[in-house]
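Appendix C reproduces, verbatim, an entry submitted by the partner laboratory led by Prof. M.T., so that reviewers can inspect both the input and the predicted structure.
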Amino acid sequence: MVSEIIEEKEGIEDIKRLNLWRRYQSTLSFILYVAVRRLFPKSRLRIEHSIGQGFYCYLEHRLSIRDLQNLEKVMKEIIAKGIPIERLLCTKQEAMRLFARDGLKDKITLLRNIDLKKIFLYRLLGHYNSFLVPPFDFTNKSPLFYIKDFPPGFVMVFPHWRNLKKLPEFSPQFRLARIFYEYLEWVKVLGITDVGELNSAIKKGRGAEIIRVSEALHEKKIVYIADRITNEKRKIVLIAGPSSAGKTTFTKRLAVQLLVNGLRPLIISVDDYFFPHSKTPRDEKGRLDFESIKAVDLEKLNQDMLEIIEGKRVILPKFNFKTGERERGPVVRLPPYGVVLIEGIHCLNDELTYKIPIFIKFKIYISALTQLNIDDHNRISTTDTRLLRRIVRDTHYRGYDLKGVLCRWGSVRSGEERNIYPFQEQADEMFNSALLYEPAVLKKYCLPILKRIKRDEVLYEEAKRLLDFFTLFNELSDRDVPSNSILREFIGGSSFVY
């Protein structure tokens, strides 16, 4: 009971840190926009996905190194002056008039297609903008950042959420950048890059078409990955990704496509190789640390994999999460044309399969790498996409309450940052499990859950942030979501058994 209270307290502190970090980001985004308007008044700034400890941004024309240096200089001048950022409550019509004055067509499209009568705007040096998470009231409250060239755009790097007083080193993630670019090409197929355009399409009755094309693009990528594995004759496929990325459904769909190619997949979970609780390592606070690679019986896992690929009969373990003990699992033998699919958070780390020859391994990183933006200056966080999936799944199907899901999220993220993200660039392939339409479908599932948090509760601010997010989306029925969709892993109705 005492440990649960401590964990809840730590979880609430993590939520506060994350929200402070989001305000830091909004403030820097606003300052960046104002600096761009000053230096390149006719250019359209778009703030995109998270990459390399910052936001990837681009203008309609390529900026030189000198341009980027000048941009950083102007931003630092605005920050140093500690200029007030004013908050104004406007009617929708007044906001649209102000946005029209500055040529912010994306924000006008959004407002036209949502049912809001009033909206908060923010003013800095005569420029107006809107943000889902409000910026700070003074520019000097977000002092740390730098800009790095990352063609065809640039990255604005800022502090990590756990330490806003220190700037991280820029880590270019070229493979991750390519998968974001691939998704951008997908959304171009649908003609939708912003929430306003998605809402407009839903209002016009294109919802079913958007679902079908989005799912077809997923299937096309899975077929491509299956073909690579087949053509390269890999025997062990390692699949890793953060929480609620959709790893289980992806693995099952990949297995189907491998069957189509004449291969016989055998699916194995790393979790079944956990040590018993008596041998599980503990973290710095004395808690069982299941996210440590040392919680896995690496010797047995590697020995079993070697025997399996040699064609021997192997008794697999089965971990009982209720008792904390490892039990006898099924007896398996890899058939002719067999391939082993291994799923687990450490699968990109070569330490997990240290005895397996590298040339027979194929690594896949999967995450919900959201490319749909709210508008040009407000991105949809990849981690928020996964959090919303987790809220629906864990409250509907795993017996957790919302408070528990929210309070654990900071700890989950920390584990991912230690055990998954450092290895993602080592993947042979990356799969983006985000679906363009999913927030519009998740809306009807999430709203009743989030509304359970009352105004006087400590988690109200976080629940309201997510509720405000859904006010920007027109609801879309899940009727046309296919039974093998990754989204079905979270909302139910899947044709797969989990």
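The CA atoms of residues 132 and 469 lie 7 Å apart. Additional entries are available on request from the coordinating office.
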